[in-house]
Amino acid sequence: MSQLASRHLLGLEGVPQQDIQLILDTAESFREVLDRTIKKLPTLRGITVLNLFYEPSTRTRISFELAEKRLSADTVAFTPSTSSVKKGESLRDTVQNIEAMKIDMVVVRHSSSGVPYYLTNCMDANIINAGDGTHEHPTQGLLDMFTIRRKYGKLKGLRVVLVGDVKHSRVTRSNIWGLKTMGASVALCGPSTLIPYDAEKFGCDLYTNIDEALEGADVVNIMRIQLERQQAGLFPSQREYTNLFGISKERLKRLNKNYTIMHPGPMNRGVEITSEVADSDKSVILDQVTNGQAVRMAVLYLLSGRKKEGEEGE
Question: Which structural domain, as residue segments, surrounds residue 186?
Answer without folding.
Answer: 138-288
